[in-house]
UniProtKB/TrEMBL annotation:
Keywords: Acetoin catabolism. It comes from the Bacteria. This is Acetoin utilization protein AcuC. Pathway: Ketone degradation; acetoin degradation.
Length: 394
């Protein structure tokens, strides 16, 4: 192999910009890259970076309707041309000049990450500008124009990959990816998210959604109650995800790492720390090596605590992708702190930790029916385990 891992990235990906005041601010990606560079996670002695290619319309159309692509292109050329019937021009998805091109560029980056892993150039590859998991085949949704994880997964299938596991750790349900592959037995989608009873998309992401007629058991939804913190979230993850992945035997893991499950995120209601999220990334990395000979494609996703959370969490992700995890006690570099102060007028975090423990109570310790997290775990295990031949009781 030319190297063990890579980041697919260039600065033009940050042109995915819905404008001032929109929560999905591209500066979060720039701050991540700057922090990762200053810590040596990226660069000559760290994770190499390769440029992102542009996805062709034909590649985007492996997931998205051609009529929708044309609608995106029209609004991209003239942002005054709104098409609310396909989600273009809503408050979540404002139109902007160049929208088609940068959205296709993000798709190209995720497909390039998948290609480099599948063709054996690297074991791991990441696209932190990606993870736009809400986009539907025929509509924009939830800040997402084109669904880059879905196109990357479809590329893997079309190029001979037998089985892909998609693990979505965003606080919001990975509804778009689930929708694309709901009746595809070669793809297992697992989404760990806040319950749709209290969070967008509100109508999907319940444990009862388990796959279509040809793929029963291939959709898994672990919907957690508000205020779930590190110990409960990690207990739930480890009570569900590893067993399902082991039973499915994926060839490649594609994961989405929205960090909006953090306690400081302004758009959601879970209570994870940087330390808990880092522990989740380490677990996905370990599962890739245990089950897929290391083949792992990682994307970004949501995350709206732009300066205090996203850059630190995604720098941890990149360091894990690169095989050299950053010690949580590492101080943030002075130059990066100065950048945050200059851009936001407030102090940056002083270290790469929130000072929290990533310890959790293993599922083998027993089920507590009074615990809402345990009830969520049981609901998911009961709905999803039988489809993969697993006993939900164990």
């Amino acid at each position: 192999m030319a190297g063990s891992a890579r980041l697919v990235y260039d600065e033009s990906l940050t042109a995915y910009d819905f404008g001032p005041g929109h929560p999905l601010a591209p500066i979060r990606v720039r701050l991540t890259v700057e922090l990762a560079k200053e810590l040596g996670v990226l660069g000559p002695n760290g994770l190499p970076t390769v440029k992102a290619p542009m996805a062709s319309d034909d590649l985007v159309a492996t997931v998205h309707d051609k009529a929708y692509i044309e609608a995106v292109r029209r609004s991209s050329e003239d942002p005054s041309l709104l098409d609310l019937s396909v989600g273009l021009g809503s408050s979540d998805n404002p139109t902007f000049e160049g929208m088609h091109e940068v959205s296709a560029h993000i798709v190209g980056a995720s497909v390039e990450a998948a290609r480099s892993v599948w063709e054996g150039e690297v074991l791991h590859a990441a696209n932190i500008a990606g993870g736009l998991h809400h986009a539907m085949p025929g509509a924009a949704s939830g800040f997402c124009v084109y669904n880059d994880p879905a196109v990357a997964i479809q590329w893997l299938l079309d190029n001979g990959c037998p089985r892909v596991a998609y693990v979505d750790l965003d606080v919001h349900h990975g509804d778009g990816v689930q929708d694309v592959f709901y009746d595809e037995p070669r793809v297992l989608t697992i989404s760990v998210h806040e319950s749709p009873r209290t969070l967008f998309p509100y109508v999907t992401g319940f444990p009862s959604e388990t796959g279509g007629p040809a793929a029963e058991g291939m959709a898994v939804n672990l919907a957690l109650p508000e205020n779930t913190a590190d110990a409960g979230w990690l207990r739930a993850f480890h009570a569900v995800v590893p067993q399902l992945l082991e039973a499915f035997e994926p060839t490649v893991i594609v994961s989405q790492h929205g960090c909006d499950s953090h306690v400081d995120d302004p758009l959601a209601h879970l209570a994870l720390s940087v330390d808990g999220q880092r522990a989740a990334y380490l677990a996905v990395h370990e599962l890739a090596h245990q089950l897929c000979e290391g083949r792992w494609v990682a994307t970004g996703g949501g995350g709206y605590a732009i300066a205090s959370v996203v850059p630190r969490v995604w720098t941890h992700l990149l360091s894990i992708v690169g095989g050299a995890p950053v010690d949580p006690e590492t101080p943030t570099p002075p130059g990066w702190r100065e950048l945050v102060q200059r851009l936001f007028g407030r102090p940056a975090p002083l270290s790469m930790t929130d000072g929290c423990s990533a310890a959790y109570r293993d599922w083998s310790s027993g089920y507590d029916p009074a615990d809402p997290v345990d009830r969520a775990i049981i609901a998911t295990r009961t709905a999803s385990f039988p489809g993969l031949g697993l006993d939900p009781s164990y």
